[in-house]
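Long-time lurker, finally posting.

We've been working with N-acetylmuramoyl-L-alanine amidase (Aquimarina amphilecti) and I want a structural starting point before designing mutants. I don't trust myself to interpret raw outputs, so I'm hoping someone here can both generate the structure tokens and explain anything notable. Sequence follows.
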Amino acid sequence: MKNTLIILIIKLVFISIILFPKTSLAQVVVIDPGHGYASNGSNPDGRTDTEHATALSVGIKLKNLIENDCNGWSVRLTRSTRNGWLTLSQRRTISNNWRADRFISIHCNAGGGTGTETFWCNRSNSPQSSNSRFSRQIQDRMVEKGQWRDRRSVEDASFIFHLGVLTGNNAVGVLSEIGFVDTGDATKLLSDTWRNRFADAYLVALQNDLNRSCTAPPTGDTQAPTTTISITGGNSQSGDFTANFNDNDNIGVTRRFYQALEKYGDNWYANRGNGFFNDNFNILYSGYTTGAGSWSVQNGHLSQSNISSDNTKLNTFLSQNSGLPYLYEFSAKTISTTGPRKFGIHIMADDVTQSQRGNSYLIWFSGEDDKVRIYETVNNQLNFRAIENVSLDNQWANYKITYSPAFGVIEIFKNNTSLLRWTDTTPIKNGSSISLRTNKTNMEFDDLKVYKFRANPTQLITAGSSVTKDIRRQNGKIKSLVRDAAGNWSSPGNLDVTISSLSRQNPNIIDDTKLSNSIPIIYPNPIINNSLTMTYNSVSNERIEVSIWDITGKFLNKISKTSKENSLQNLNISSLLEGITNGNYIIKIKNGDHVSYSRILKQ
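Top reply, 14 upvotes:
Generated this for you. Predicted structure of N-acetylmuramoyl-L-alanine amidase:
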């Protein structure tokens, strides 16, 4: 009887290992978006739609962040739909059956207060010290990134009662009350921008509490993913349309990027105001501004032939303010066989008129010692951050850089092989330019591109005559690149599209692409700490006027400045906020003959 029992136990353990494999590197996270409507549309818990929707939205965003950034982590939602209500015991059972390491139940508060609070339970099946520590980590990150009043991190029964979703839960877990649905907190709860920050706070708390960032990718996988594109309704569209991406991999796609391009003559360019960039260097693009160096297009490549300047510049405006990851890609070949043989690119730059581009990251390759380095420029001062070996020769190579503003992760690839990965704990969130750079080196560049991140297999592409649209010409193109957990990159997927409502058909001039430069970028929005900056490209040497108006049309404040013609400017407009209470406002910008408007939120 005893031997039979032992054999049975061994079998059960073996089955458990097969069904629920866990390693010291893997982490299992269960996310519980609280409440929700029942399948018949009823509201069993009587909660507001603000709580139902906010909990679900933040939960899905957190799940996407983990899946996109944390190789080897497993994540599950207790509900993924509006009508996905489950009992407390069902939610707890999901967590235990999934063998969760961490459990986060997401809720919103009510009762007329303000701020955020986090609860842990001393009747869970995990150590009290672990639950208390995790609760404090969640609370601190939510206060920091969500900019909430710190109400409390507390054991549940000491303040309210034992929470059923935590009682008997095997995971280290918390219940997080983000903010109050019935006060001014609701403005942030309903903001997609703030929901992104709440999800960011949870992920950083998870990484800190587990004492590890996302795990290393699996080894041995050399099969590249694939990506193709189709368009709902066909390849001829009259306006905004949905692009469908079919991404496949033998293990799983972890990063997805896309471009929207528009054709000018024989050249494909992109709307820089929307965060896209493309130049194949058939001609020298009129959207560049140059500093030191001898920049020209020779035989279909961009050439920099000056070997005396140690800091050459080729700059272009590019809005990098989405808060989502970007992919920067270019090809390069070193012509010089002696000397420094150094080249690279500044990304997320906010002032390319300065020698070190203001605030930015510099990805810097050196053939002199076969190294790649990451520098961060802070207030126009270079600061070394990371270094790795790289084999550099006088052959063409493809370079990719991915950057996540939410998490500060920069990863560098050469010919689709990862070279260096570094995380900035205080990442740069906004940028207005990119800038190529060399040091006493004759270089050639080609195919400079910037892609934007997409989380889903579908993406809305805007098309029309407005300068804010993704595609503003009759001939457009959608491109896609994806990466798997092992760092393998796909070949580009691309699809041509015709915008039938547009009459502009491939003109031989590209001057109107500069229109995107005249769209000012105002950030941060929502406003943080009464600080407000405007990045814009001056189109004349006339005075630029920036004014703020309330939503009833009442004028409140104004500032003005004289700018240099055709120069990228960063203007501190925080003084507009003096005496301004929380709420929605309109910023009016008069730049030469161009007038534009932006809506901002102060809270």
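Before you design anything, note these points.
The domain at 18-210 is CATH 3.40.630.40 (Aminopeptidase).
The CA atoms of residues 559 and 575 lie 8 Å apart.
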